[in-house]
Specification:
Length: 146
């Protein structure tokens, strides 16, 4: 330590030795106190760091959950929109097919009506069997076309 100087007087040497021991004990006691305070401060600092890290992780987790929720809502909205568009497309196709079917049925009805009318007109020209002989004779006598 360098603070010890040998003396010839044993009493003085003893008192110096006691004084050195007391100073050493005081210094050790102070060092222990300082070490204890430093360790407590380090523990507090570590605890604050851990709490800050936990808070940061909590915030990050909440942000991820919010982003995931937003993504799932967006996907649900897109699926719903696609489903709606698909339903509308099917409805348009059904309507179009129904219109085509109605036009075909109407056309067929008109064709049948024309054929029926044609047959009716032709049938009005038909002659009963009773009048057939008389008409034949008239046609031979009168040469005007029917």
């Amino acid at each position: 330590m360098g603070s010890w100087k040998p003396t010839d007087n044993p009493g003085l040497a003893k008192s110096r030795l006691v004084k050195l021991r007391k100073n050493y004990e005081k210094e050790v006691k102070e060092l222990r106190k300082q070490y204890f305070y430093e360790m407590e401060a380090k523990k507090l600092e570590d605890q604050v760091k851990r709490e800050a890290e936990l808070e940061r992780m909590k915030v990050a987790r909440e942000e991820r959950k919010a982003a995931k929720r937003e993504r799932s809502q967006l996907l649900a909205t897109q699926r719903q929109q696609q489903s709606q568009e698909f339903r509308e497309m099917l409805q348009r196709e059904r309507t179009k097919k129904a219109e085509i079917r109605m036009r075909k049925e109407k056309s067929l009805e008109q064709k049948r009506a024309r054929e029926k009318e044609l047959i009716w007109k032709k049938s009005s020209l038909w002659i009963d069997e009773k009048d057939l002989d008389r008409r034949i004779v008239e046609a031979m006598v009168d040469t005007t076309p029917l």
